[in-house]
């Protein structure tokens, strides 16, 4: 099941099927997407309960899929990842324990990925003659670089938190990833949303820079008093 709780400025989304290593069923994917599309907190924190982050799609479900069912499962997973990317909330993945297949793909859609020393990552679908279809082929190379992405996807091997940090799959390795979500949530929500929109901008550089100028001007106008106070403290 998926639990959604508000804790101050952080919406905590918990994947809570520890007996199945937090493997996801189609209905779980729908709840995750709804949570991201409806979030009102400035930060969404995604994590898994128990010893794993997420094992990806539940193989009990995958084993019974026909062609149309496979398309539907892929589309539902892609909806979640797109929702993480498009919401104004900053989405932080706290990865403690194994992330496998679709679990890696969920993390790839998050804005900030933070691991504990116990985290590990793998795209093992190739061993079953499959590959991740929740947007992994589109995002893994962009985030990790083509060489590391090809290695992970084609070998199916597992990498630990240190290697994941080296290749850019995670930005930090800490004991408690939730502290990073709280750190981010301490900043003005409008600044967080504007920064995310600009960093996620996929248009050409010139038009991106023009939108960056306007967003910066809006924030300066909105936070004039805070800026003046900070200046006076220097």
From TrEMBL:
It holds the Pfam family ECH_1. It comes from the Archaea. Gene3D superfamilies: 2-enoyl-CoA Hydratase, Chain A, domain 1. PANTHER family: ENOYL-COA HYDRATASE (PTHR43802), IP11341P-RELATED (PTHR43802:SF1). Belongs to the enoyl-CoA hydratase/isomerase family. This is Enoyl-CoA hydratase/isomerase family protein. It comes from Halorubellus litoreus.
